Amino acid sequence: MRSQGELEQIPQEVVKQISELETRIMTDIVERIHKNGFSSASSDWQITRLQQLGESDQNIQKMIRQALGDIDVSLDKIFSDTVYEEYYGHARSYKLFGREQIPFEQNDQLQELIGGIRQQTGDTFRNMTKSMGFAIKDPVTGKITYSPLMKFYQDTLDAAMWDLLSGGFDFNTILNRTVSRMTTSGIRWIDYDSGNRNRVDVAARRAILTGLRQIQGKINEQVAQELETDRYEVSAHVGARPTHQPWQGKIWTMQQLIDVCGLETPGMGTGLCGWNCYHTYRAFPPGSIRTYTDEQLEQMIKEENTPKEYKGKKYTTYEALQKQRYMERCMRKTRQEIKLLKSGEAPEQEIILKKAKYQGQLQQYSKFSKTMGLPEEMKRVYQDGLRGKFTPTKTELKKIEPPILKNAAGQSIIKVERTTLKGTPNTITQKTSAKGGIERNYYGEDGMQIKQISNNNHGNAKMHPYGKNGEHAHDYSYNEKGKVLRSTRELTEIERKENGDIL
């Protein structure tokens, strides 16, 4: 039986191809906004609008045709090589049973089914590319509406040009808003028949695995009939969802696969071979040996259901894997944003900040995976097909480092625009108000603020009757619910010496 990892890998090439199409379409939108935002074309938008939209429609249709051609090649490979391997994966069972397996090419019934499903899967992708769009969330009501691709394209450009011409927003604000909306939604397949609105990469993976499941089912049916058995072994994998744990790795009859394991029409429902299920099953003729004993399965489930802690929150293996998938999606989103901001020629500072964000996401992902005892699955991140460097260089990092000051005692002070209760552990920050007043904020080992020193009375002498000019200190502590408790006092002699440069 194929492992979870092997099943996940089968559709990866097609997922990469559809993801590349998604990015190319988003890039086209961004580049069109950039072109109109920095040329005389913006003032002529209403005149050239239909022409530009027509050109964009032609460009996108060309991109889709190219992508479908690449996808067809990949599908041919999947429905020949992968199915061939699946078929002869049962060769050992035939040998043990002393039977001859019909050669793959001569199995007419199976070949007819493969041809039909290959055609069906190809049609699914053609339908998918004809009904793509974006999911748009209303910032006020939170309601999500779905906009067909070209309508989104048209509305986005219209709104961008209006904002630029009216002076309501500058180009960078519009660019960031557009990039955020697109990457948050991702291009969706709006299936009007079923009502499903999945991201195209998810829909692509599901379409391929659904077709393969149908073929696997037919192969199992033939093997069971020819080897005279009604017993099937279900696979087991790490991090199975809780409702699948009781039946994974065990032997069942076909009726039990339906009644106990919830065997579904491939790609449907929540049971065996349903939505996002990576379990498989195969005929288990007499003389076969189970992959796992009941004792091994019991121990596996016990270990996986014992929570591990990360940053104060506990995760079972299943929950940790879900968190991993979320972190991978966030990294793919950030990578897309970097690519699109570059295409829109956003300010260098913004691109570097996005790269720094991605670097932080990578570090958190690595720490989380190590703590949970899970392998890092960066191939899921790289399925976007994007090329280039997405982490900042040392030179780039220096450009976004906060200015460092020194106090009278020679301690480093980080200049900031605002004060927060949570900061970098064991650091001091400095904020200067519009009127010139200075606040220095001290952070403890846990990164929580423990003290603030001000060189003024905040314009309220009655509340701050301290020192010569109202200079004073606030001490911070926190109750068991995390609520901040703040007291006010005079500066100590040591504090006066350390901060003599601002007093």
- Estimated radius of gyration: 30 Å
Percent strand: 5-15%
Overall 3D form: flat
Largest sheet: 7 strands, mixed
Separation, N- and C-terminal Cα atoms: 74 Å
Average pLDDT rating: 90
Number of helices: 15
> Which percent range fits the helix content?
40-55%
**Which parts are unreliable, with pLDDT below 50 for 5 consecutive residues or more?**
none
In total, how many beta strands? 16
**Major beta sheet, strand line-up:** 10-11-12-13-14-15-16
Class derived from helix and strand content: alpha+beta
What does this entry show, briefly?
With 503 residues, the chain is of the alpha+beta class. It is 50% helix and 14% strand. A hairpin with a 2-residue loop joins strand 8 and strand 9 (313-315).
What would you note in describing this structure?
It is a single chain. By secondary structure, this protein is α+β, with helices and mostly antiparallel strands. It is built from 15 helices and 16 strands. The chain has helices spanning 4-9, 12-37, 45-88, 91-97, 108-130, 149-166, 171-185, 200-226, 254-259, 294-304, 317-343, 348-372, 378-381, 394-400, 493-498; strands at 132-137, 144-148, 187-190, 197-199, 231-234, 251-253, 281-283, 308-310, 313-315, 404-406, 412-415, 428-432, 438-443, 449-454, 472-478, 484-489. It has a seven-stranded mixed beta sheet, with no helix packed on it. Strands 2-1-3-4 form a four-stranded antiparallel beta sheet. Strand 15 (472-478) and strand 16 form a beta hairpin.
